[in-house]
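ESCALATION

Customer reports they have been waiting on this structure for their group meeting. Please prioritize. Original submission:
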Amino acid sequence: MKCTVKAVQTRRQMNDFLALPRVIYRGNPCYVPDLESEVHDWFDPNRNPGLKHCDTALFVAYNESGKPVGRIVGIINHKANEIWKGRCVRFGWIEFVDDTDVSGALLKAVEDWGRSKGMNSIQGPLGISDFDKEGMLVEDFDKMGSAITIYNPSYYPEHMEKHGYGKEVDWVQVKVEVPAEVPERFARVQKLVTDLYGLKVRKLTIDEILKGSYGRKIFRLLNEAYSQLFGYTPHTDEEADAFVLQYIKMLDLRMLPMVEDSEGNLIACSITMPNLARALQKSGGRMFPFGWYHLLRALKWGHEPEVELLLIAVHPEWQALGINALLFADLIPIFNEMGFRSAETGPMLETNMKVLSQWKTLNPMTYKRRRCFSKEIDKA
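Update from on-call: job pushed to the front of the queue and completed.
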């Protein structure tokens, strides 16, 4: 297929960029759309503080009839490049029809743009922030997607390999059944670390998060806990404030346990929420006219029987001491009370055995492998 790749400069081109997934995934029962309004806001400097240390370029591919057939975003995260000592351009938000000319043209657009900015390598799919969706699905294409992960057709990774891209890292997810009672191992470790270190689990109030500084405390903990993970870039207080304002109304504070030491220092936290996959499917990626209703229902009074374990973070000084047991011991009774029967984690690096091993007590099923691809672009 002959196609033309254009940089997004007009409102019509932006609308084509936002609407393209509706074409790619029409009739696919596993795809979970993003809200188009949120995707738009990710590229608005007034709404996304992360853009202060990133350059971005949005592209749409059009066929000879002028129909959009692909999209991609080029991202240069200057802070990440400084921290990780590289000159890397990222690609993200990539979608394309099953035609290697289209996918090749999109990737070349970002490669050329990155090279013109002095970059010598390319990686992706990655986001502007490390809390954006990352990693192209390479297995389990028949499994339902989620609100926090990328879903893509099986031909996507095949195209990446044909264009000379190789594996940089893989992430996997874990699914567990919620036990009827707290496993004895968790209960034992919970008592031990509580007695030994004087730790306590507490729940926050809206005022503490919005009017106090606790939202920033959580993100500072995340920065400490995740600092050594692949490509991680610390979030600023301004970014923390933006994330809190965007998502706090979607969270049930009963499902956000915080672990503090005897002096009130935050040392661990977990953020979980009901699975929104089917609600987002019903919304069609649009908040109006009825998307808000499906999301509100899934969050407040008609949630699915599965919960999403968005993240767990433990301060490095407290890791390997069983602190996670306090989080699990707190959440399991709450999940049962709320009617959740299973839980799915977010993506975890396949090499992060310290994190993956924490699920052994819950008989985990590991699945949904996704990949960050990379390629050198020193020469045209």
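Sent to customer with the following note: The chain has two domains: 3-172+372-376, 179-340.
Escalation resolved.
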